[in-house]
Amino acid sequence: MTAEGRPASPPLTERQEARRRRILHASARLAGRGGFDAVQMREVAEAAGVALGTLYRYFPSKVHLLVATMQDQLDGLHATLRKRPPAGETAAERVAETLMRAFRALQREPQLADAMVRALTFADRSVSEEVDAVSRQTTAIILDAMGLADPSAEQLAAVRVIEHTWHSALITWLSGRASIAQVRTDIETACRLIERQP
């Protein structure tokens, strides 16, 4: 059962997973070219080579689709970070470097970043499963950078504050209200919370 009491979906077959990946890649390409408004379900279905009804079975709305696209982008980032881990001496430095690398990746595709962040902002309770998946992936990325497999409750609280700061910094940068230097300062400041944990 899911957190909302819905039955958990059965695992996807290899063919279904390949179809889902095509849909997510089509969503990312369209968002990268034209932002949130460019992601129209009919166009996504056509670009992915699936029927519109099939697309809706995987993703009931554009917001579901774009939040899942963000999780897919984070999956890719996590794989890259595992191959090339951050190099800071302290956990705080490694987490700050990790989040700035994530930020720079989003900087390269600002339209895609804007579309995904808008979807996260618009997400209501019906999208909680997808939003939770994004949060779990972000937490896993931060814990990997910290070198922690079994964090304490206090450490998880610090990670949540760092996640909130990163998300907020992304929003303020996308809206033109923060420079890259400000983003870095805010992220580094939040990451110093790690040093205060036992």
Would you give an account of this structure?
It is a single chain. With 198 residues, the chain is mainly alpha-helical. It has a domain at 61-193: Tetracycline Repressor, domain 2 (Orthogonal Bundle). Helices cover 72% and strands 0% of the residues. Helix 1 (14-34) crosses helix 2 (41-48) and helix 7 packs across helix 8 (153-174). It is globular, with a radius of gyration of 17 Å. It starts with 13 loop residues before the first helix and ends in a 7-residue tail after the last helix. Mean pLDDT is 91; it is low at 1-5.
Question: Structural class, please?
Answer: mainly alpha
Q: What CATH first level of the domain at 61-193 would be assigned?
A: Mainly Alpha
Please provide the count of β strands.
Answer: 0
* Biggest sheet record: none
* Quaternary status: single chain
Radius of gyration (Å): 17 Å
Which superfamily, in CATH terms, is the homologous superfamily of the domain at 61-193? Answer: Tetracycline Repressor, domain 2
In percent, how helical is the residue content?
over 70%
What's the helix and strand layout?
Blueprint: H1 14-34, H2 41-48, H3 52-58, H4 62-83, H5 91-108, H6 110-122, H7 128-146, H8 153-174, H9 180-191
Pfam family, one: TetR_N
GO molecular function, one term: DNA-binding transcription factor activity
Protein name: HTH-type transcriptional repressor KstR
